[in-house]
Amino acid sequence: MPKTDGYKTREKILGVAEKLFSEEGFNGTSIEKIARAAGVNKGLIYYHFKDKKDLVVSILKSIISEIDQMVSRSVIEEDSEIDSEKLQSKIRMEIEYCQQRKRIISLMLMEALKSGGESEYLFKCAEMIMQQEMDGIKRKMGTVDAEDREERHRYLLHEFFTGFMPIISFVLLQEKWCDYFGCDRDKTLDYFIDSFTRTHLNTHLD
Amino acid sequence: MPKTDGYKTREKILGVAEKLFSEEGFNGTSIEKIARAAGVNKGLIYYHFKDKKDLVVSILKSIISEIDQMVSRSVIEEDSEIDSEKLQSKIRMEIEYCQQRKRIISLMLMEALKSGGESEYLFKCAEMIMQQEMDGIKRKMGTVDAEDREERHRYLLHEFFTGFMPIISFVLLQEKWCDYFGCDRDKTLDYFIDSFTRTHLNTHLD
Amino acid sequence: MPKTDGYKTREKILGVAEKLFSEEGFNGTSIEKIARAAGVNKGLIYYHFKDKKDLVVSILKSIISEIDQMVSRSVIEEDSEIDSEKLQSKIRMEIEYCQQRKRIISLMLMEALKSGGESEYLFKCAEMIMQQEMDGIKRKMGTVDAEDREERHRYLLHEFFTGFMPIISFVLLQEKWCDYFGCDRDKTLDYFIDSFTRTHLNTHLD
Amino acid sequence: MPKTDGYKTREKILGVAEKLFSEEGFNGTSIEKIARAAGVNKGLIYYHFKDKKDLVVSILKSIISEIDQMVSRSVIEEDSEIDSEKLQSKIRMEIEYCQQRKRIISLMLMEALKSGGESEYLFKCAEMIMQQEMDGIKRKMGTVDAEDREERHRYLLHEFFTGFMPIISFVLLQEKWCDYFGCDRDKTLDYFIDSFTRTHLNTHLD
DNA sequence: AATGAATGAGCCTTCATTCAT
DNA sequence: CATGAATGAAGGCTCATTCAT
Fold this sequence. Notes:
homotetramer; 206 residues; mainly alpha; Arc Repressor Mutant, subunit A; 77% helix; DNA-binding
């Protein structure tokens, strides 16, 4: 066995890199900075990761697999009626989750926005989450025909741009929003949920 | 005597910088690259702009003033009834405008997403646009009391996260979305407008 | 005009680089070392040369053009009889020249020896020199038909491997040879010239 | 108990290193690359060899001892007459041998060319080979007085620069020569042997 | 005999910035 | 206004080497 456990070091580097990348972006974060923050030698990062790009990709892949596991574990309560209350509490949970994974989401979005950047991780993540929801809906109501490619695309687009994006935008910008407009965090959250209910969630009722 | 009109050079630099910053982000774009692309000497950029930061700020300020002028020029048609049709065509125009200013919007959003980045330009832009809309609504219906700070904030938040963000997300990501899901650009636009109508625009009717 | 003359700096860098590359080879010489030895900033080397490779290539090209000029300037004494004496003194001059350009020759040869290295400069150099000689011989005796590709190749090969290579080997290794065998420099030169006369030069008489 | 025979591993490493060093030179070849190519762990190389320098030295020593054995095994046919035919076939064999040991010869020569590099291996190798030849000649004709230091040196120099160097140059550069001049390998070999016969070998007759 | 992890120095290269002209 | 030259710092990456196991 080597001096220490390489797996732990790798995870440590990934964690620190996730934090720093989300703060300053890919180009704004140097390997040096990551190494210092992780308390490891700069060269060691290149022992564990091919290059800087590989670091981001590893981070992004990790959330993909996390979501993948989450999705496959999630139990769908067959019989439940959908009502506004339930949806709202579900949204609150989703926001909470996004808040925990804020950094990686920020990273994904920033990468997707660059012309040359990778958007596949953002879309894949969103797709997985949305697919799960679709499955739930289909099972309950049979209203969405997932076999119909066109229909599926339409559904994904709807969910992504009017559901997913507002939520992650809110999570990523909430703090700065409150600073800029000088308002209360909690109240802002309530307002957002109210807005979101009146817009996107509205399409999940009736 | 100057070789060419200094003002034109400045504008040329700003234009090129806007393009490149939006493609690779602030840190991913070097002054060297901007100079080459603009066909000017690197040193000249430092004649026109204090430093790199000043370049971005100048770009961001320029869109602020552009919107400012647009807003103040815009005539509000007093009597017009609001109906779904009119709203949709208005949205199409807004999307078109965003598409033209895509690059600068991308830049603003990318900067806002970084922890250490500036979000004030993004918010200010959005605020100006939303304020104008609010004024229009107030005039027509008096339903929003802009003097009520709380109410105004609630309205801004609603517009920003469920109106503005979906639109700019769509504009910035549409191309990559179509690539990723292998779908048609025009149809995608139609779907988006339909979704947007059923969610956000819905709150502007009734 | 800039602070100093860029051309001079460029030449200075080239000169220093030629020296260092010949001493330690391409990979054994760092840009840092070159910069220090040339008394310039490391970054400046990248202002004048695209990259490290470009530095070597520039050096190698410079000797090509030097030889090119030399060759085109050289006057061929039409009527002169060829005798051993004259040939020997010509060889002495050639050795002298090689000694002056020792470093660059060393560089060319080292590069040519690597599997992935460039041999074209070495061959081109040799070809130019040999071509000139061929022209001289042809003019005097008409014995070599330069139009005959096969004959030309045969001649070049003969000149290169039994004429050119012994000479540059001697020039490049003489010092180490004398160190290793503990012998006198001047006497060694005489011995070499004698050997060279009895072997290669012999084929230029009769 | 060791996983495999340590001796074999050592030989494997030496073989791979010889190949890589000859391709990219000493500085151009990393221990990492050698380890990967040999299919062993990087650290293991340091178990078998003190450091990188020790690796090259081990390689170079191995050819010295190989030649040493070859030389001491070689039987000198006392009575044989020396004629051009015999010499030529001997040269063909020598070229063949050099072709097999091409890589290590390349390495020796490259090292010898650097100012700071070791030339002793190249000279030692050549010396051993030449000494053997001298012994043969002496035995047959008594023309070379090996006891006379001066005479011996003169002979070695002659053999080295007009015999040995042309041959190894040819072997090391033949491929690139043919590429550069677009000519046939076999014919090139014939031409070279012809030239070599008319120059160096000529001094071994009469 | 063999491995994986770790280190520190150094290398090639880029970059924001300055300055003399 | 505009340019070419120059700088110093930093960035990404490689490498020889060591060490615990």
